Amino acid sequence: MTVETATGRTARLERTTSESSVLVELDLDGTGRADISTSVPFYDHMLNALAKHSLMDLTVRATGDTHIDVHHTVEDIAISIGEALKTALGSKAGIRRFGEATVPLDEALAHAVVDISGRPYLVHSGEPAGQEYHLIGGHFTGSLTRHVFEAITLHAQICLHMRVLGGRDPHHIVEAQFKAFARALRAAVESDPRVEGIPSTKGAL
After folding, report:
1. Beta partners for 160?
2. Residue 19, Cα to own-chain centre: how many angstroms?
3. Dihedral, 20, 77, 4, 58 alpha carbons, nearest 10
4. Biggest alpha carbon distance in the chain?
5. What pLDDT is stored for residue 150 in this prediction?
6. pLDDT of residue 23
7. Which of 36, 51, 109, 121 is positioned for an S-S bond with 159, CB 3.0–4.6 A?
8. pTM (2 d.p.)
9. CA gap 147, 83 in Å, rounded
């Protein structure tokens, strides 16, 4: 894996294994521009929503052994996004650190709370029974939703509490979660002009 940083809160990462090849570029201070091609159409849709509602510019280009299963490609992209987020955040000086959002999508409702803590932790609850078995868009299994958030939180070293508060349609249940995460992340990584240095009593995140 190679990670590059540039001016501002940006990162560019390339990750290649025997299972996938992934390129991720992101800018935390963007406008929500997305250029996504993962070879998994529903995942493209979710990552477009992530970029749009977090206001980070996000490019993802990936290929992988999707003839076997999309799992490897989906996971490796999430790992790469997490690593890129960690790099782009830099020292984390001056950020708000915490963010939360509750987002509806018709009958579905998701609540996300993010802490840019330096300590990876995921709490994921509330999906209706059987959600993990649904095949959404012909490729994306419902169980991958939690797996994506696990990989991002671990590699970005953030804490995420995600709760599904309601929902019936499998597509809506997943999309509400991605949008809630995006909005909470947007708030957490924003610069706060009142914050001096690292927003932690420990002096480090």
Report:
1. 114, 122
2. 21
3. 130
4. 51
5. 98
6. 98
7. 121
8. 0.95
9. 15
